[in-house]
Write a structure and sequence with these properties.
- It contains 20 helices and two strands.
- With 486 residues, the chain is mainly α.
- Strands 1-2 form a two-stranded antiparallel sheet.
- Helix 13 packs parallel to helix 17.
- The longest helix is centred in the middle third of the chain and has 32 residues.
- The protein is globular.
Length: 486
């Protein structure tokens, strides 16, 4: 290999988080074989240490930003933000999962290794500067997620969930890859910056470029469950185990939005007049479908799945604004969304218990009388999902709609606010059931909240409150990192 192709120490340093996670994931699988029939909870703690080390490496790498490996990787504030976010999602997922897996007698190193490998893919997506690297990151994350969706092999719901996710995910990825091939044929490159340079000269046929962008949008819209590619989410979230539903609703979605922003704000910046109207329609359709479908749901996992679709619509409003303010809004909103959604699923995980027998909204009847601690936590998280002031959800929506108004998308902002009012109905219905109904059979003999699960609940709740009272904790960094592609 020529000397100029040899990576430097700085380049390896910028890629350190992914290296650490890969090593720890492999180590967990080796330790799995060595522990025999003993309790595997310790492997969860090893995984947590690996994720913490990777997070520290990601923060340290941001002190020496730049390109790596022939410009295939870029480390900047935007990449660092999403790296830390998906690593945090991985840590919270492990905290939520440990006791759940022990009760289901399915606690093994395979689960933790799959979480780590999926996070590797998501982290790679966040810092990829090249379409092939984006594709590789998506595939690493997706393959691990497909297996996680069907992790409980004896549960038919898990099997159905994994099969649906795999078939539809593979189909959507084919669109993405076809779009990558097409843009390579038009520009002769898969590097995001080089594609932008070629397209800015106007030499490539505009219609053909638009088609390639549309093909890639199909693949990315599936990953974020944006309309009309959202049909998989309710079935997959409902069929998967509750901790994995929490994971899939947060980490992969955040990473996919990071890719969407980087690709369309960088490579396709010169044809924004073509894709902005498409995003406008998709964001509105996503909000409407997610919120109005959630109104009909009695299964709380399915309700949260449609809620997740609606939140993807809010984020797409910020993406549609095509501005630095919109980029900062995307970053802040996804951080608050990950906290409140994982927290809500943590409560569902505890309430559902082994076999997930109690996942109906009515199963939460009278919970306030039996378990005020958990009820208080879920109340805060639901109020944040609604967008009540002094929660992270409020400032997230405020920034999203401000970005839309600043970009003269007044009608989209108004329709988004009306959708938020619709969402309040099905969220507040859960609070009514918890506080104003008598306890039922599901709230009798409630299990204690396990240590790791309690930590996850507290972290997500306190984080949600902190972002609502002190949004500057991350908003300043998000604003500094929002000049992506400009």
């Amino acid at each position: 290999m020529p000397a100029n192709f040899m990576p430097s120490a700085a380049e390896y340093f910028r890629f350190a988080p992914e290296i650490i996670l890969t090593i720890v994931g492999t180590l967990v699988m080796i330790l799995e074989a060595m522990t025999g029939d003993r309790d595997k909870s310790s492997l969860g703690y090893v995984s947590l240490l690996g994720l913490a080390a990777a997070m520290a490496a990601a923060v340290a790498a941001n002190n020496d930003p730049g390109l790596a490996f022939q410009s295939m990787i870029i480390v900047d504030g935007f990449a660092t933000f999403f790296r830390v976010l998906v690593l945090g999602v991985g840590m919270l997922t492990i905290l939520v999962s440990t006791n759940y897996l022990s009760e289901a007698k399915a606690n093994s190193g395979d689960f933790y290794a799959l979480i780590l490998f999926s996070v590797v893919g998501q982290s790679l997506m966040a810092c990829a500067n090249e379409l092939i690297m984006i594709f590789i990151g998506i595939e690493i994350s997706s393959i691990a997620s497909y297996i996680l969706a069907g992790y409980l092999r004896d549960d038919r719901r898990n099997n159905e969930s994994a099969l649906k996710y795999f078939l539809m995910g593979s189909f959507a990825t084919a669109f993405l890859l076809y779009g990558v091939a097409w843009i390579y044929g038009l520009t002769g490159s898969t590097n995001l910056g080089e594609i932008r340079t070629v397209l800015s000269h106007g030499t490539a046929p505009t219609a053909m470029v638009g088609i390639s962008a549309a093909l890639m949008l199909v693949g990315l819209a599936f990953k974020v469950s944006a309309a009309p590619f959202q049909v998989w989410a309710p079935d997959v979230y409902q069929g998967s185990s509750a901790p994995i539903s929490a994971f899939m609703s947060a980490g992969p979605k955040a990473a996919a939005f990071a890719v969407m922003v980087r690709v369309f704000y960088t490579s396709f910046d010169s044809i924004s007049n073509q894709w902005e109207p498409v995003f406008w329609i998709m964001s509105l359709a996503t909000m409407v479908i997610g919120n109005f479908a959630a109104l009909q749901q009695r299964n709380i996992k399915r309700m949260l799945a449609y809620s997740s679709i609606a939140h993807a619509g809010y984020v797409m409003v910020a993406v549609t604004s095509h501005s630095a303010v919109g980029t900062a809004a995307v970053m802040f909103y996804l951080a608050s969304y990950c906290l409140m959604n994982i927290g809500a699923f943590a409560v569902v995980t505890w309430m559902a218990r082994d076999g997930e027998k109690f996942v109906e909204v009515d199963d939460f009847s009278g919970l306030a009388q039996k378990q005020p601690f958990v009820t208080a936590i879920l109340t805060v998280l639901i109020l944040s999902l609604v967008g009540v002031p002094l929660t992270g959800g409020f400032f997230g929506k405020f920034l999203v709609f401000k970005a839309a108004i600043d970009s003269h998308l007044m009608w989209l902002a108004i329709l988004g606010l009306l959708n938020s009012a619709v969402a309040a109905y099905y969220y507040l219905r859960v609070l009514v059931v918890m506080y104003f109904r008598e306890p039922g059979a599901s709230t009798v003999n409630l299990p204690p909240v396990a240590g790791t699960l309690r930590v996850a609940m507290l972290v997500t709740t306190l984080g949600t409150i902190a972002l609502g009272i002190f949004p500057g904790l991350i908003l300043g960094f998000a604003t500094q990192s929002s000049t992506l592609g400009k």
